[in-house]
Amino acid sequence: MTHHPEETLVLVKPDGVERRLTGEIIARIERKGYEVVDLKMLVPTREMLAAHYEEHEGKPFYEPLLEFMGSGPVVALRLAGDRVIEGFRSLAGATDPTVAAPGTIRGDYARDWGAGVQKNLVHGSDSTLSAERELAIWFA
Ligand code: IDP
Ligand code: MG
After folding, report:
1. pTM score, whole prediction
2. Is 37 helix (H, G, I), strand (E, B) or coil?
């Protein structure tokens, strides 16, 4: 029987691209042992972002989040590996970069900039259902 490893969507957000951290982030993913199956750089449309972040509609940070995510190029990655969803979330660290553990991507390279949205460098799908849904948006 063929082994089908799990897949996830990772985004290097506009702050990560602008701060030239794309290579560092991909290096950490690869060193951990996950496979980059596909990747692309694009400026996402409002429609893509609304679909991607539908669960957050109505929250106070929703508009700042969509504005931030559409403010420049994003690098989208399709990653594969056993338990890669959980594994990448662990590499990324906590959502709030101020308290994300040192050693994580967010903990090492992100901070609070006093904006209405947390600029925390990366996105990673949080479940197999989210991964499937989000990969269809970014790798249609
Ligand atoms: P996650 O990216 O760690 O999965 P989510 O709760 O799914 O976090 O939130 C999506 C994104 O929205 C976060 O990565 C962050 O950029 C932003 N965000 C989440 N919660 C807050 C908040 O309380 N204030 C400001 N921005 C937030
Ligand atoms: Mg999330």
Report:
1. 0.98
2. strand
